[in-house]
Specification:
It contains five helices and two strands; from the N terminus they run H-E-E-H-H-H-H. It has about 130 residues and is mainly alpha-helical. It has one domain. The N and C termini lie close together (about 10 Å).
Length: about 130
Amino acid sequence: MSFHRKIAGLYFVILLGAASLNYIPGVTDADGVAFGIFALDLFDDALHLASALWALAAALISAKAARTFLLLFGALYLGDGAMGLAVGSGYLDFGIFTNGVLDLPFSFKILANLPHIALGAGALWAGLRRAHP
């Protein structure tokens, strides 16, 4: 199995885990806030599940499909995290349209957007990395 297919498979597992956070007892508080930082709703769960299934499909199809997934997913998630860091709302969950620009403490914005920044940057790095046979 190629490097890109392995990494896409890893993203499947990570994203499936993100989609399941709301359903693991003790991860969210009474207000539905995960880890005391961000609230994940059904739309977020669906986005993470769709991304996980995209990653799985890409990993199973081919190295080229996996690399394409990593590049596109990486750009989308990194951009979303960067936008959330800048204005407090991202675009993947339509937060910028429903919530607009949010005046949040910068430290909170870092914690809330770090998962998308890290996942996006990691996927882009892997997608840009030259595969070795």
